[in-house]
Amino acid sequence: MESELTRSIIAGIPQPVLIVGRDGRVKAANEPAEAVFGTGIAGRPYITVIRQPALLDCLEGTLRHGQPGRARFIISGPSSESSYRVLTSPLTGAGQGGALVAFEDVTELEQAEAMRRDFVANVSHEMRTPLTALTGFIETLKTSARDDAAARDRFLEIMEREAGRMNRLVRDLLSLSRVEAEERMRPGERVDVLALVWSASLTLRPLVEAAGAEIRIEGEPGPVMLLADPDQITQVFTNLIENAIKYGPPGQVVTVAVSRVEREPSLRGPAVRFDVIDQGEGIDAVHLPRLTERFYRVDTHRSREKGGTGLGLAIVKHIVNRHRGRFRIDSEKGRGSRFAVILPEH
Ligand SMILES: Nc1ncnc2c1ncn2[C@@H]1O[C@H](COP(=O)(O)OP(=O)(O)OP(=O)(O)O)[C@@H](O)[C@H]1O
Ligand SMILES: [Mg+2]
Predict the structure, then answer these.
(1) ∠ at Cα 107 (102, 110), nearest 5°?
(2) Could you give the CA distance from residue 318 to residue 236 in angstroms, rounded to a whole number?
(3) 238 pocket-lining for ligand 1 (C-beta < 6 Å)
(4) Which of 244, 268, 306, 341 is 20 to 30 Å from the Cα of 227, by its Cα?
(5) CA contacts within 13 A on the Cβ side of 257
(6) How far does residue 309's CA lie from ligand 1's centre (Å)?
(7) Residue of 313, 317, 332, 337 to mutate, ligand 1, most atoms within 8 A of C-beta
(8) Measured between alpha carbons, how far is residue 285 from residues 62, 115, 292, 312, 331 in Å?
(9) pLDDT of 220-234, one tens digit each?
């Protein structure tokens, strides 16, 4: 067994650490290591503890030749996978020998990296579609459609739409990164949020009228004074009402129900709840957890046709987070959807 000093040293390290003796047995393990490999591993042959060829090879090299080594180590849990970077280093000194095996959890790092890659791939893909269309039509206008006035008008219209899509994409990306940058700074101004709901619904009037729909704002006479960033909260309700209209049937009623909650458990205090309720076809439960991810769309083709970039709900979520509120989506296929924005009163 290992000395008291060694034990206390590895006990102070927040990441998993093992000490393996020259005899190939685990001599000591700190608490994080026991959380990974189970308690009572001290005394067991390391081969029965570690069991992954890459790390076993590396550790063997350290024990035999006194050479430090690096390896990756993966632990598969029931629902997720953790990934470790492992360093094996020789222990030297009087009466020593053996190796120190130190684990560094890099799961979050790798997830962030994967997210960044996905994000860049998504942005490029979203940009490429309208760009391809634009380049194609420019080419056609320069050649075959040069003297065809009717075709020219039609093509220009499509080009305008595609350029508009790129414009919206860039605008939404900028607004997302701005909200993210400010996410830790809670807004300090008290504003009438109900008035912002009204102003969002007014901005959307053309869209609402084109769909023959109606917006009803119910529940509170107002004002509803809350700590809020007026532009961002207007954007939240614009995005939600716009979705309700875009993905709902013509002639529907979209309701924004405002209610005061004396004590919202998730916020541990009083709150105001804004439910945006539509009479659309609803969303299948499998999609709900991912709906606020960037670029996630239930029906990519349909959303694109409507000019969507799939960033609307991601923006909403970040804005609500910045306001220390909660954003919840309730929906059932065939039953319409309810998007709840819950903002704290204090
Ligand atoms: N009220 C709703 N009813 C049914 N589906 C909805 C509703 N709101 C959103 N969705 C689904 O969620 C997806 C993501 O919505 P989000 O607002 O993030 O993106 P978008 O509307 O496609 O594009 P953008 O808002 O950026 O223009 C939509 O593509 C749509 O499939
Ligand atoms: Mg949207």
Answers:
(1) 115
(2) 10
(3) no
(4) 244
(5) 10
(6) 9
(7) 313
(8) 51, 23, 13, 19, 7
(9) 888 999 999 999 999
Q: Which is it for strands 326-331 and 225-227: parallel, antiparallel or unpaired?
A: unpaired
Mean pLDDT within 78-89 = 92
pTM above 0.85, yes or no: no
pLDDT tens column, 267-317: 999 999 999 999 999 999 999 999 999 999 888 777 777 767 889 999 999
CA distances to 128, 130, 143, 158, 306 from 135, in Å: 10, 9, 12, 12, 21
Residue 76 has pLDDT above 90, yes or no: no
Q: Which of 320, 176, 323 is nearest to 236 (CA)?
A: 320
Asked if residues 1 and 25 have their Cβ atoms less than 8 Å apart, the reply is: no
Residue 1 has pLDDT above 60, yes or no: no
- Short-list 36, 18, 31, 39, CA closest to 77: 36
Helix (H, G, I), strand (E, B) or coil at 221: coil
For residue 55 and ligand 1, the question of a CB distance below 6 A is answered with no
249 Cα–ligand 1 center, Å: 14
Which tokens sit at 284?
Answer: 């299948």
Tokens, residue 319: 């804005």
Confidence of residue 94 (pLDDT cuts 50, 70, 90): low
C-alpha 179 – ligand 2 centre gap (Å): 17
